[in-house]
Here is the input.
Amino acid sequence: MLKTVEFHWRNTGKTHLTLHVYLIPNDNTLEKAVNKKEGTNMLIDKPRPVHPLPVNTWFTLTPPKKSEIHYQIKPESLKLDYTKNFFEVFVESPKKDFSLQLKPKEKDEEVVWDVSIRKGDYKQIASTVDGHTSARLTGTESVSDILLECLEELESKEWDKFKWNLTKDSFQGKDKIPRSKLEDKEIWDIVTCMIEHYQVDGAVKVTLMVLKMMKQNHLAEQLQEKYRQFKQAAFMVNT
Here is the structure.
């Protein structure tokens, strides 16, 4: 049975919000492991589903059908089991309250959990680094935010050139990323793809190499400095 649904959020002062939504069975050890994994990411406490949910069942997490807010939710479905997997919910410009609904994958019309996320639920806990507000976070997802912020600075034509270079050459001793994986993808999708393909440190190095190939040296220097600060902060938190 499902014990709890946990939200962990992060915000880097940009206009987007990212939530990690965990489905956790009745296992205190697993719940503690999730909290440790999320580190300083803020926990949003919400009511559990009214009725128990069976383990090894697949679920989807979606916004209401008439929602006006732009969402990206991955993966499309998640199995309630004893792994520490989660739904990642990317909300662009969360200027108002919004809702999420959990449904069994095989029964798409059956809502087993309906929750509202209010602006007061995700007040930012932040530190100031180099004049910019950023959440103090550790782990893979924080690197995603650093890369996302960097690549958002590219203009449309430069962004197309970045994607072209990313598929044109192989980096870090790995095969090229297939062009089909990047076609019609948003920036955050490509950041996720780079991290999955090259791992965390490799994704940063590849981004730096491509930016320098494009003569985007100033942007590369900014990324390098932010990543250095991130690793230093992560070391301080972990020690």
